[in-house]
């Protein structure tokens, strides 16, 4: 389950942000995860309590929003929504597309409590 190591990486980032701002703990952590990121949101939610135990984010709410897939077509220039198993351009049906979003995992926001 690589989601546990993903949680630990997120906690390292949150810890660094909290130290930089003199915070004593985190109360909310917001992530945006795309379906092509290789991270399963449900597995991440399940791994979170184990990873966060004893950390400054132990009682933090983990909020995950899932982003859609958007591709840019190199042939016709259209930017369109796509599905994970169909990344071809919906406008011209060409397969030469580039993923614009949907493959990311972004730490969007951290709410901190300061002493």
Strand content: 25-35%
CATH class identity of the domain at 3-67 and 102-113: Alpha Beta
Mean pLDDT score, rounded? 95
According to DSSP, the number of beta strands is: 6
Q: How large, in whole angstroms, is the Cα Rg?
A: 17 Å
Q: What is the distance, rounded to the nearest whole angstrom, between the alpha carbons of the first and last residues?
A: 35 Å
Low-confidence stretches: none
Report the helical percentage.
25-40%
> Total helix count?
2
Biggest beta-sheet profile:
3 strands, mixed
Class from helix and strand fractions: alpha+beta
Shape: elongated
The CATH topology of the domain at 3-67 and 102-113 comes to hypothetical protein PF0899 fold
Structure description:
Helices cover 27% and strands 33% of the residues. By secondary structure, it is α+β, with helices and mostly antiparallel strands. The protein has a domain at 3-67 and 102-113: hypothetical protein PF0899 fold (2-Layer Sandwich), CATH 3.30.2320. Strand 3 (69-73) and strand 4 (79-82) form a beta hairpin. The termini are far apart. The mean pLDDT is 95.
Key attributes of the depicted protein:
single chain, 115 residues, hypothetical protein PF0899 fold, 2 helices
Brief characterization of the structure:
This protein has a domain of 77 residues: hypothetical protein PF0899 fold (2-Layer Sandwich), CATH 3.30.2320.50.
